[in-house]
Design goal:
The structure holds 2 protein chains of 2 kinds.
Chain A: H1 8-36, H2 42-67, H3 75-92, H4 97-119, H5 124-143, E1 154-155, H6 162-180, H7 183-193, H8 195-200, H9 205-228, E2 233-234, H10 241-254, H11 259-275, H12 280-297
Antiparallel strand pairs in A: 1-2
Chain B: E1 2-13, E2 16-27, E3 31-35, H1 42-49, E4 57-62, E5 65-66, H2 72-77, E6 80-82, H3 95-102, H4 111-116, H5 121-137, H6 153-166, E7 171-175, H7 183-199, E8 203-207, H8 211-217, E9 220-225, E10 228-233, H9 235-240, H10 242-249, H11 253-257
Parallel strand pairs in B: 3-8, 3-9, 6-7, 7-8
Antiparallel strand pairs in B: 1-2, 1-4, 4-5, 9-10
Helix pairs in contact in B: 3-5, 3-6
C-alpha cells in the first residue's frame, strides 16, 4: 500500500511541515538574493537582524507570559546577561561564536532558574514588580562591573550576520512551538488557566513555571549574545526597562499565547520604527497610535490565541472525515 | 484495608477552628458521603486530604502511606483525584484538551523530546484517543471540540469529573457535584456517580448539600458540624439521628423523609 497506509492526518502533518520548510528556505533565499542585488541595503539589513532578534525575544517571552501565564517584564535583564556573557566568551576567552551563543543562553537560563525559584511564588502584579526589579538590578550590576567596561560599554567584534539570526529565530519558533504542542506544554497552559486545578491534575506547577522561565530566559540570552555581536558596542543602558517593555508590547500586540502573533508583531514593529526613523517625533506619535488602535480593535492582540494555519490541503480527503478515537 | 484514614485532622484559620480532630476511615470500594451545614468544614477536609491545604495538626494516610503534607500534585500521583465546588475547568480550552491535560501523570516522554518533537507522535495520539474515549464514556463526545466555558452547567460538572477520571484515580473526591443543578440534572448525576463507581472500581467520597443525592447514592454518611464529626451511619440512621436533625436538617426533615 505504501503511502496509502499512512493515516490521513499524518500525511497532512508531513505536508504542512514540507510547506513551512519550503517557505522558510525560500524566504531566506529571497532576502539573500535581494541583498546580493543591492536592493536590500545595509540599513535594511540591520533592521532585518533586529527584527530577527525581536522575534526570538518575543516568542520566548510569550512562553512565559502567554502560555504559562506568568507576567514577567524583566526580559531585557536576561537579554543583557546573554549579551555580556556571550561577549566575555569571545572577547576575553577567544571562544568560537557558536559557543558564545550557547554560553549566553546557559548563563541566562541559570539566572532565570535562580530568579524563578523564589519569585514564581508571587502572582500577577507582584511577579511583574519582582521581575522588573530584577531587570534593574542586572543593569546596575553591569554598570558597576569594570571588567566589562562599566558605564562606558563593552566593545564586541561583529560576528553575527543575518544568516545566524535567521536560523536561530526559526529554531526558536520551532522549539517553542514543539513545546507548547506537547503534553509538557499543555501542563504550562494548564498552569495559566487554573493553577489549583492544574496541581489537582498531578501537575507540579512550580516545576513548569521554572522550566518556562528558564527556557524563556535562555532564548533571551541567545538573542542578547546575537545582539552584542552585531552592534559592536553593548552598554547597560541598551538593556533598560524600555527594552523589556518593547518585548512585552510585541507579545501583547501579537496575542498572548500565539507564536505566530509574536513573530508578526516583532517584524511589524521593527519595520514601523524603521520606516519612521527619519521622523523621530511623529514616529513616537504614530507608534503609540498604532498600539492604541490595535488595543481598541483587537484587544486580544493581532492573533488572539490562534496560530497561522495553512488553510488548504493538497492531499485528497478520503470519503469521510476520520473519526477521532473510533475503533 | 482502609484506603483513606485521617487521625485528629485539624485546621485553624486565625482564631477559627474550621476542622477539629476529624477522625475518618474510608474503606476501599465505598461510596460514602460527607454532609454538614454551611461552614461545617467539609471543603476544608477535602482540601487537606487532596493536599491543597496543610493541616494545622493531625495525620492523613492513603493506602497505608502518610500523605499529610504532600503537595497536591504528589497526592494526585498516588491515585486520588477531586473536583471542585466552584467548577475549576481550564475554561478557555476545549473539553478534549481539558481531559488530555489530566493524563499528565501518565506521559512517558521527557522535556527534551517535547522540545524536539522526537517520536512523540504516537504517544500524543494515544493520549488524544484515550481522552476522547473517556469523553465518550461520560457522554460528552460530541462536545470534544467545544470550549469548556461554553458548555451547559451540568456538562461542565460532568467534564470536571471526566477530567478527574483521566488521572486514573482509585479514590475520587466530589465536592458538591450537584451544586446549582436542577432536579433532572441531579437525578442524572446520581446515576452517573453510581455508574462510574461500578465501572472504574472507584472509591468515592461525596460532599453534598443536596439531600436527595447523598441519601440516594451513598451507603454510609458522615455528618460534620462546627468542624467535628457528630454522626455516622447509613442514610436511614442519619435521617433519624436527633443530633443531625438538630444540627443540620431542622425544618427540612419533612422534605428528607419523603
Amino acid at each position: 500500500m505504501g503511502l496509502l497506509s499512512v493515516p490521513q492526518h499524518r500525511l497532512e502533518k508531513m505536508e504542512r511541515q514540507l510547506i513551512w520548510g519550503a517557505f522558510v528556505v525560500l524566504l531566506y533565499l529571497l532576502i539573500i538574493g535581494l541583498k546580493a542585488l543591492g536592493i536590500i541595503d545595509q540599513y535594511t539589513t540591520n533592521n532585518l537582524v533586529l527584527a530577527g532578534i525581536y522575534v526570538i525575544l518575543g516568542v520566548s517571552l510569550n512562553l512565559i507570559n502567554g502560555f504559562t501565564g506568568q507576567f514577567s517584564i524583566g526580559h531585557a535583564g536576561f537579554m543583557s546577561i546573554g549579551a555580556y556573557f556571550g561577549a566575555i566568551a569571545t572577547v576575553k576567552f577567544g571562544l568560537p561564536f557558536a559557543l558564545a551563543l550557547l554560553m549566553g543562553g546557559l548563563v541566562a537560563a541559570l539566572a532565570g532558574m535562580l530568579i524563578g525559584l523564589p519569585t514564581l511564588r508571587l502572582r500577577g502584579d507582584y511577579l511583574a514588580i519582582a521581575t522588573l526589579g530584577f531587570g534593574e538590578i542586572i543593569r546596575v550590576v553591569f554598570l558597576n562591573w569594570e571588567y566589562v567596561g562599566g558605564a562606558r560599554g563593552f566593545s564586541v567584534p561583529r560576528l553575527t550576520n543575518f544568516t545566524w539570526v535567521y536560523v536561530i529565530a526559526v529554531l526558536t519558533v520551532v522549539i517553542i512551538r514543539n513545546w507548547v504542542q506537547s503534553a509538557h506544554g499543555r501542563a504550562c497552559i494548564a498552569v495559566r488557566e487554573d493553577e489549583v486545578a492544574a496541581s489537582a491534575m498531578g501537575i507540579n506547577t512550580t516545576l513548569y513555571k521554572v522550566i518556562a522561565f528558564s527556557v524563556g530566559a535562555a532564548f533571551a540570552g541567545i538573542a542578547g549574545a546575537l545582539y552584542a555581536h552585531y552592534f559592536f558596542l553593548i552598554a547597560p543602558h541598551s538593556f533598560g526597562f524600555l527594552r523589556s517593555v518593547e518585548v512585552l508590547i510585541i507579545v501583547v500586540l501579537g496575542g498572548l499565547g500565539s507564536i505566530s502573533g509574536s513573530v508578526i508583531a516583532a517584524i511589524l514593529l521593527t519595520g514601523l520604527s524603521m520606516l519612521l526613523a527619519n521622523w523621530p517625533y511623529p514616529r513616537l506619535i504614530i507608534y503609540s497610535l498604532t498600539l492604541i488602535g490595535i488595543m481598541i480593535y483587537r484587544p486580544g492582540g493581532l492573533m488572539g490565541m490562534r496560530e497561522i494555519a495553512l488553510p488548504i490541503s493538497f492531499i485528497k480527503k478520503k470519503g469521510e472525515e476520520r473519526q477521532l478515537g473510533a475503533s | 484495608m482502609a484506603l483513606l484514614e485521617t487521625k485528629g485532622l485539624s485546621m485553624t484559620f486565625g482564631g477559627l477552628r474550621a476542622v477539629a480532630g476529624f477522625d475518618y476511615i474510608l474503606e476501599e470500594g465505598e461510596l460514602a458521603g460527607l454532609i454538614g451545614p454551611n461552614g461545617a468544614g467539609k471543603t476544608t477536609v477535602f482540601n487537606m486530604i487532596s493536599g491543597l491545604l496543610a493541616p494545622t495538626s493531625g495525620h492523613i494516610y492513603y493506602a497505608g502511606e502518610e500523605i499529610t503534607r504532600l503537595p497536591a500534585h504528589e497526592v494526585t500521583k498516588r491515585g486520588m483525584a477531586r473536583t471542585f465546588q466552584n467548577i475549576r475547568l481550564f475554561s478557555q480550552l476545549t473539553a478534549l484538551e481539558n481531559v488530555m491535560i489530566a493524563f499528565h501523570r501518565h506521559v512517558k516522554y521527557g522535556y527534551a523530546r517535547a522540545f524536539l518533537h522526537l517520536n512523540i507522535g504516537r504517544e500524543e495520539e494515544e493520549i488524544r484517543e484515550s481522552a476522547y474515549r473517556l469523553l465518550e464514556e461520560v457522554g460528552l463526545a460530541e462536545r470534544a471540540h467545544q470550549i469548556a466555558h461554553n458548555l451547559p452547567y451540568g456538562e461542565q460538572r460532568r467534564l470536571e469529573i471526566a477530567r478527574a477520571l483521566a488521572t486514573r484515580p482509585k479514590l475520587l473526591l466530589l465536592d458538591e457535584p450537584a451544586a446549582g443543578m436542577n432536579i433532572q440534572e441531579t437525578a442524572r448525576l446520581k446515576t452517573f456517580i453510581q455508574e462510574i463507581h461500578d465501572r472504574y472500581n472507584l472509591t468515592i467520597l461525596v460532599i453534598e448539600h443536596d439531600m436527595s443525592l447523598v441519601m440516594g447514592v451513598c451507603r454510609r454518611i458522615t455528618v460534620l458540624d462546627y468542624g467535628m464529626k457528630i454522626a455516622e451511619g447509613t442514610p436511614d440512621e442519619i435521617r433519624s439521628n436527633p443530633r443531625v436533625i438538630e444540627a443540620y436538617l431542622g425544618e427540612e426533615t419533612a422534605d428528607v423523609a419523603n
